[in-house]
Amino acid sequence: MPTDPDPLTSVNDMRRHLRTALTEAEVDGVVPRDVAVGLFRRHLGRYQGDIREAFEARRIKGAVAAKHLAGLADGLIECLCLHARSAVGQNDPLQNSSLDAPFVVAATGGYGRGLLAPFSDIDLLFLTQDEPGDDIIRLVEYILYFLWDLGLRVGHATRSISQCIAEADSDTTVRTTLLDARLLWGDSRLFAMFEARFILACIDAGAPRFIHDKREERHQRHLRFGESPYLVEPNVKEGRGALRDLQTLYWMCRYTFGARHVSDLMAPGFATFGLLTDHEAVRARRAWDFLWTVRLHLHYVAGRAEERLTFDMQPVVGARMGYTHHGRQAGVERFMRHYFLTVREVMRLTHVLEPAVLRRALGPVQNSAPPDAVMQNEGFTLIDDKVLPIRADAFEKDPILMLELLRWSRIRHCPIHPLAMQQLIRWERGAGALRDDPTASELFLDLLCGPPPLQELAAASSAEPAAQRTFGEHRDDDSTRVLRILNETGIMGRLLPDWSRIVGQMQFDTYHIFTVDEHTIEAVRLMHCLEHGTMADEIPVAYELARDLQSRRALYMAVVMHDIAKGRGGDHSEIGSELAMDVCPRLGLNGEETETVSWLVLHHLLLSHTAFQRDIDDPKTILDLADIIQSPERLRLLLLLTIVDMRAVSPRVWNAWKATLLRELYTRVAEVLEGGLATTERDLRVAHAKDGVAELLEADDFVPRDIEHFLRLGYAGYWLSFDQDTHHRHARLIRDSEARHAPLTVECMPVPLRGVTEMTIYTTDHAGLFSHIAGALAVAGASIVDARVHTLTNGMALDTFWIQDAMGEAFTEPQQLARLGHLVEQTLAGRINLTQEIAKNTRALYARRMRAIHVPPRVVVDNRASNSYTVIEVNGRDRPGLLHDVTDAMNGESLQIGSAHVTTYGMRAVDVFYVRDLFGLKITDERRLRDIRQRILTVLRDAEERIVPEGLARESMIA
């Protein structure tokens, strides 16, 4: 790579050329303002373009480019100040000016550190000795308006030295900004006076207060921008592990060790303080350069001060930085993994550097509570209520003490001391020696699973009062704190080498909001919540199952292993299952536990796939599932794994409707596995359903003729699809509709406990009915999550749709329900043009960042999933009108839809239809099936092209 040019060379060139141009443009000793603005704009644009070209050609890195941009701004402002002083002085014919008073223009904030992103604010301090005179105010205004006319963003303050000191004393943000103040133009003696007084004020205020304020500020910032550093659309400036965290460390060091001595945290000279090892310093500089490079690319691509690495930006920035497709991994995923590994490095740097700064600023601390004798004998103590090894070289000499430290932290329900975290990170390589150590394996499994809930409660009740309070406050944190520490320090990857391959691994979609490692840790946390009953009200069946687990270790290991093979290509369930057979015995699990883990990993998507994409009222669905699971214990474990896996994806993925479907599926499979009523006894179940509803109708004063009429209407599939209360409600709806001779009856009933609104439609059956109803609901902003379509013996259709609003909740307001019914009626009457109404807002609905997600259309035909139906699975971009378009295509192929099951995974929709031909038979002709598949694919591709034009689709796939 060519040697980086000296930024000052180009700055001096610009100063010289600009001064020459201004001199040549003088008319009677004066440069007209509009002429001056034009000259400054041309010079600024030229040199900004040179820096951008060098950066995008990868001749200079991000931090170097930022220094060039800051140097360019320095030269520009110096020339502007000279020009402005001359221009303002020309306006005072008597030359009775206050411009001779001491005055300084200084850079502050990030610009003061000599770093500037392309579209960031230029922070300026206009410093005076006393209150500024009118001419100084005019000078400041001239400079500011001139900079704004150049299109620059300027942050500014005009203060005297005393005002600066007072503001800094009352506001840590101002103090931080002034910490990096740098003279640009003006009276050097005034600026030196300011520096001297500011340093004295900082010494008087003391480092402890400043550090406390910066740590609290960082905590609040993390809460605002995402506590997890592994969010898939991170903020590269303000997020956890991002640039601001590195800058916070810099401010702490600069304040603690002296403002004159720590000019650059990432400069090689910083190593002389002995706070970082050479290896740590190199990694810190790499992180600094990488984050600045990402940030500059973001600014240049967006054309504004964009700090969020959104989905549409990720493939573009990744491609600009050279990340291309490699093996089975897309370039964008390689780029984002590097990003997440970098932010983890920043967090590790924080754990290493901050304790040293705190020790220097706060001095040694005393033991707040003496540890018990056993703890002390094992080599640990408590300092400031935090666990710490007694010896500084403990982990170097005996790596297993790293796990013992975490065990004591859990036992005493107190955090790890910062110095201990520092040592864990510095000696994490030693954990590799523990891979086949039986004691280490036992400790790891104990830390992963924790004590059973009853045992933990008993321990807490017998503990000291302080420990009881801590346990109550931090019980939820204890369930994941250990795993997070193991992951952040790198010890987890040393113990389980396969784990290191999923650290920072992301999937380029809107469904998974965390990286794979963070998702897995969240799943473990949720499993602890299930065991402790903190989610009992939400998922009572899961709590009942989790209270008496017979295979705790196997289940927790399955949670750890279920996604460990992602990013390797192929089926991650199959690969993960094979890995489990190798990893689990190494960790001390017996043969039965290992087989259970392997089976759970292999089938961890089985229940969710069946519940949301198959008709669970179809007997074959239940029988096939029971044949795979075979064991009630495996069914219980699989349900728990399914729940925590789904909940750990995103808070919005789980809802009451999905909980209901999983519970019903579990109950039906458990009934078969436990020898209850067999699903094959279809006639008996139909007769039982009819007898039950007949009793309800008699109690409701139905006359025998109406009862008999209703019982003759439904085919067997109808009686097996609903419970008795629903049959009763349908009977009333049909009786009332026929009494009124109504051509159409629509009934909407909210079911809040299930998180859906149930819409029942009774009307004359005709071709395209499902498609028209689906279109009407799309216009209403409703999402169909499930549907049952029944044609009765009288030729009428009794269709049931379960729908949700945009937030995944039930429609409950009367006006909402009335509008739903009205739109269906208007659509079936032909008064609404569905194509126009759906198209009107579809494209506007998707921001560019969402259109960047590539969702390839896919249609799968399965004739084995059901004995009575052909099952068609449609994968495509989720959008309003998707169901309408697909079912309209099916209508064009003369298909009858028996049921539809809709699931969304971020931007991807998976719609499954159980269909027959016009004669009520499965479609078996291969040519016919190909035609059906091709017709649906054409509909999906045409719609995708309307939403994502070909050019944007190519752009999103660059990497």
TrEMBL record:
Keywords: Hydrolase, Magnesium, Multifunctional enzyme, Nucleotidyltransferase, Repeat, Transferase. InterPro entries: ACT-like_dom_sf, ACT_dom, HD/PDEase_dom, HD_domain, NT_sf, PII_UdlTrfase/GS_AdlTrfase, Polymerase_NTP_transf_dom, UTase/UR. Uridylyltransferase (UTase) activity is inhibited by glutamine, while glutamine activates uridylyl-removing (UR) activity. Residues 1-375 are annotated as: Uridylyltransferase. Residues 516-632 form the HD domain. SMART domains: HDc. GO terms for molecular function: [protein-PII] uridylyltransferase activity; phosphoric diester hydrolase activity. Its EC number is 2.7.7.59, 3.1.4.-. The keyword Lipid metabolism does not apply. GO terms for biological process: regulation of nitrogen utilization. Has four distinct domains: an N-terminal nucleotidyltransferase (NT) domain responsible for UTase activity, a central HD domain that encodes UR activity, and two C-terminal ACT domains that seem to have a role in glutamine sensing. Belongs to the GlnD family. This is Bifunctional uridylyltransferase/uridylyl-removing enzyme. The lineage of its organism: Bacteria, Pseudomonadati, Pseudomonadota, Alphaproteobacteria, Acetobacterales.
